[in-house]
Amino acid sequence: MSNPAPAAKSSFLAKTLGPLLSDPPWAAKSFMAASATTVAGVGAWLSDMMSPALARGGASFIGGFLVGWAFRKTLKIALLITLSLAALVAILKTTGWIHLEWNLIQSDVNRTLDWARGQAQSLKEVAVGYLPSAGAGVAGALFGFRNK
């Protein structure tokens, strides 16, 4: 009788980041459908059968899908890093190694949130200017975030 080979050990980092880096966006059905639509739209536009609207809408959907997919992956990694840093700060504060000035932290957070609101408002104004493409892009971002 022979002994079975030991199971391969994987690191904590590989277990944590492995699922985050798997599942590529181009494997989603809606991404493949939008890609086919874009190619068909470009072909029809180049042969003067129709306007470039179909290609532009499909390309906007693909771009939005990739942005949503990247945002979902980035959000998961950022959440992991944020929780790790919060645990580290809690440990350091409990042991007395650091002292936090909550008023300064709150003013910095409020200033950052005000800046983000202004940026979101300007993005909304730009998106309204490109409404058909922006609509396809937002739909793509939602599908990309959900990875459908």
3D structure, described in words:
There is one protein chain. This protein has helices at 12-21, 29-46, 53-95, 102-129, 131-146. It is mainly alpha-helical and 148 residues long. It has five helices and no strands.
Low-confidence stretches: none
Biggest β-sheet strands, sense, barrel: none
Helix content: over 70%
Q: Name the beta content range.
A: under 5%
Rg, please? 23 Å
Termini separation:
48 Å
Structural classification = mainly alpha
What sequence of helices (H) and strands (E) makes up the elements? HHHHH
Pick out its properties.
148 residues; mainly alpha
Could you give the topology of this structure?
Elements: H1 12-21, H2 29-46, H3 53-95, H4 102-129, H5 131-146
Helix pairs in contact: 2-3, 3-5
In brief, what are we looking at here?
The chain is mostly helical and 148 residues long. Helix content is 78%, strand content 0%. The longest helix is centred in the middle third of the chain and has 43 residues, at 53-95.
